[in-house]
Amino acid sequence: MGGTLSSAVALVTGAGGGIGGATVSALLAGGAEVIATDIKAPSSGTLNLVQDVTDEAGWAKLADIIRERWGRLDCLVNNAGIAAVSTIEDTDLGSWRRLMSVNVDSMLLSCKAMLPLLRESGKTRAGGASVVNLSSVGGLGGAPFMAAYCTSKGAVRLFSKSAALEFAALKYNIRVNSVHPGGIETAMMEGIVDAYVELGAAPDRATARASVDAQHPLRRWGKPEEIASGIAYLCSTASSFMTGSELVIDGGFTAH
With pLDDT > 90 as the criterion, what percentage of the chain qualifies? Predict the structure, then answer.
């Protein structure tokens, strides 16, 4: 049986980035109304807003806006995130905490703020409300020079599992799953490549890119749209029996 996104109300954070923008487009194409947020105002959603995902008061204001206009939230996509490339020796505590705040603290803040709206959706929506948290293949295994990032994405994975089990135990009818992309053609990934070169881990960009390619059996980076299609599936009613799962979309990266 097919699923639907028709008339769903969805929130996508980090909507100004590659995966975030592609996700907004995929959800709109499926018939959803999308609140798109980013640290700089995006322009692709039904409603576009500036948001700092580490600001608890900002989350409360956003919940009020959604409640006033729609009265519920069917899909929450926590996509906002940052990356860092550094040796452990050179990682300073301030940078570590900033990354954890954006990548991990935002998960707690979003779920707390949006929970009443998600519960409203869970009362009537077939398959329940859906929360999709963006992790990474780095959340399934470590990587050199990316200890902070991989730690944060591992935390996203286990937060998602814990939330899925808790919401099921409380009979909220809210599903929670994590998505784990491999190397994707985004500005963030290009920045990681540049950082590897600056760090001396690769002699030049071509070598660094070739190294990333070689880690994917499909021998290429993924496209944002390929991740967005998986996110849209988890948001749709077609995934109504999925919760606490990791959806890995990585070109075979983790199949080694």
Answer: 87
Pair of tokens at residue 157: 């994975």
Look up residue 222 and give its DSSP letter. Answer: B
- Distance, CA of 196 to CA of 248 (rounded, Å): 24
Indicate the helix (H) or strand (E) that contains 123: helix 106-124
Return the beta strands (E) in 145-228 as ranges.
174-181
Number of Cβ within 10 Å of residue 142's Cβ equals 12
Closest CA to 209 of 192, 226, 224: 192
What's the CA gap between 245 and 242, in Å, rounded? 7
Residues in CB range of 128: below 8 A, 6 or more apart: 121, 122, 172, 173, 174, 175, 240
Residue whose C-alpha is closest to residue 183's, from 212, 204, 205:
212
> What are the two backbone dihedrals, phi and then psi, of residue 248, each rounded to the nearest 5 degrees?
-95, 120
Helices (H) and strands (E) counted in the chain, each on its own, are 8, 7
Weakly modelled stretches of the chain, pLDDT under 50: 1
State residue 1's pLDDT score.
Answer: 42
Task: Look up 172 and say whether it is catalytic.
Answer: no
pLDDT digits (tens, 9 = 90+) for 52-65: 999 999 999 999 99
pLDDT tens for each residue of 221-255 = 999 999 999 999 999 999 999 999 999 999 998 87
**Separation CA 114–CA 123 (nearest Å):** 15
Nearest to 71 by CA among 28, 25, 30, 119: 119
